[in-house]
Amino acid sequence: MPTEEANYYTAVTVAAILLGIIIIYFIITMIRHQRRNMHLYKAKINAEISTLENERKRIVADLHDELGPLLSAVKLRINQLDSEREDDKKIVEFANKHLGDIIIKIKEISYNLLPNTLARNGLIHAAEEYIDKINAVHPLKIRFNYDDDPGLSKEKEVNIYRIFQEIIHNTVKHARADKLEIEMKKQDNQLLLTMIDDGVGFNYEERSKNGSGLGLLNLQSRAEVLNARLLIESAKDKGTKYFFEIPI
User: Fold this and answer.
1) What is the dihedral of CA 100, 106, 110, 116, to 10 degrees?
2) Which of 123, 171, 182, 214 could pair with 144 in a Cys bridge, judged by C-beta atoms 3.0 to 4.6 Å apart?
3) Measuring CA to CA, how many Å separate 133 from each of 65, 140, 144, 168?
4) Where are the transmembrane segments (predicted)?
5) What is the pTM assigned to this prediction?
């Protein structure tokens, strides 16, 4: 091969190698950039959810430890009033009734924010209790099948309980379903949670593309925090299926 031709091929080879190195460097930089953004995004979601849960705990503690006992003490003092006048008796009766209603409402708000059962007895008991409450007051019939306690951390139990609440709330409010089947089982190192309703369904792709639906965003955020895989299948008049694959 002539010297000039050999030099030409050498130059082309060197240029190709340099170009390849530049392309590989560019791809690696893009991957690192995406990973860093994903890491920052997850950290942001974690911080937001952690702040939200801590704020809920603080409000529950304030309601339980301060406002509840204060109202109970006021109610006790009012009941101790001794008057023969009918007008006074009616006022005491009125105040007593409304104080009782307020105390009950405070207990309901505390329960919705963070039920004691979740902290004391764990996810399965808390989920059963919540489902029993919904079944008692709503036509939607929820059936919950589960294996033994999967032995999750408290943090994971809180996030999965919020998933229960969100999906049941969405089903009651939007799905117009007659029944909701829930199955939770452990498989190897995964917790598989499936929730299927027989409601009117919705266009999941369109909702996701438009970024609409606070409930769906909440589910996606909880899945991110749990490092879980989330699949949602739904179609008009064919119900909705939610599937979570959660590492234990």
Assistant:
1) -20
2) 182
3) 25, 11, 13, 12
4) 6-28
5) 0.75
